[in-house]
Amino acid sequence: MNLQFLRHSDAEIAKFVEQEVVRQEDGLEMIASENIASPEVLEALGTPLTDKYSEGYPGRRYYSGNIFIDRIELLAIERAKKLFAYDGHNAAHANVQSHSGSDANLAAYLALMNPGDTFLGMRLTAGGHLTHGHKVSATGRIFRAVQYGVRRSDERIDYDEVRYLAHTHKPKVIICGATAYPRIIDFASFAAIAREVQAVLVADLSHIAGLVVAGVHPHAFPYADVITTTTHKTLRGPRGAMILCKAQYAQAIDKSVMPGLQGGPLDHVIAAKAVAFGQAMQPAFRDYARQIVQNAQALARVFASAGLRLVTGGTDNHLVLVDVTPLGISGKIAEQALEQVGIFVNKNTVPFDTRKPMDPSGIRVGTPALTSRGMKEDALERVAEFIVRVLKHLHDAAVLESVSSEVRALAKRYPARPWFHL
Ligand code: DSN
Q1: pLDDT digits over 182-220, tens only?
Q2: 391-394, long-range: CB within 8 Å, 24+ apart, which pairs?
Q3: Does the active-site annotation cover 55?
Q4: Domains of the chain as residue ranges with CATH
Q5: Which of 94, 156, 290, 361 is most buried, judging by how many CB atoms fall within 10 Å of its CB?
Q6: Residue 233 annotated among the catalytic residues of the structure
Q7: Which residue has its alpha carbon closest to ligand 1 atom 4?
Q8: C-alpha 347 to ligand 1 mean position (Å)
Q9: Which residues are annotated as a binding site?
Q10: Which atom of ligand 1 is nearest to the CA of 179?
């Protein structure tokens, strides 16, 4: 794989693409929502499928010439249903056309609610997502969003609060799932609450889908009525999303995605999703997912023994959320210092944060991409030590320089894309 045509005819873009590839190769990508797609996924993305229009669904298109596109989408659907099988039963329905997680969530809401209806979602500052009802998101403007959070005492989801809010506000939908929550999500408790108030339960698995299908995190089916997920995070596919649901919601979900929200699907992305679903069904993917969690726990151990404050005290999944304010710094300062040495994390609010989202109290540190590079606990312990050294010696140029060269040396030992030739 290389850039032979691009380099020749559009040197400006080619140069920046090359620089970005080198940045990723030389650095340590620890943004919890990022990963490294396989060469097969990238190949599928780079095919002439991008040129095709195929509004509609397999067998029911608004354009001709979709015989092979239909087969690809049907394969993607069948694989998605099998990948999310629970208890020996495939998922009843899959829609693989959503362009992004935000689109998928909006499509699910529009299928299940009318504008003005009430739903319950997790507060962004507690670890939720914008589309779980934040007031600046369309989801918080179109619908009446009521937000739940975590307990002050242990920073874990407050199921008593969820139950109280559900009984008080009688939502049509309850959405669970998070972007910055390091613990297991108890889908059974959410489902029990949803049943008590006759709400539909949507589980947004975007961050943990790879862990769920590998059996490393409890499955959301059969508890959730609808699952939304991106395909590029722990699932390690192309940028995009999908929706799975019980049979009774299938028609409404499909209509909501197209024509409700989208026109033509991205057929090259759907092909790449199918490839990634096939890869995620291989036994090696289970080992990969298990290693993601073991690596995050290795990070957490080193952080904790260095005295850092971890939200909830540790992790059960792919990420660690660190409150850096006890070190006398903010999340933004920590993010910038780590970027300087080639470690990429993101500043993040912590529960009950009193600081602003653009300069919050924490950083979110994830292991999916480094695990894709083949790193195991020993490597992650070293990475954790790098992070601790940087955070504790922010103004010591010698320390930063030495960590920076150690980062590059470690990155070299674990190539991100040995098959990508510049
Ligand atoms: N941007 C994703 C994340 O980083 O969690 C969610 O939208």
Answers
A1: 999 999 999 999 999 999 999 999 999 999 999 999 999
A2: 391/308, 391/324, 391/327, 391/329, 391/334, 391/337, 391/338, 392/306, 392/327, 394/329, 394/333, 394/337
A3: yes
A4: 45-280 (3.40.640.10), 286-413 (3.90.1150.10)
A5: 361
A6: yes
A7: 33
A8: 12
A9: 124, 128-130
A10: 5
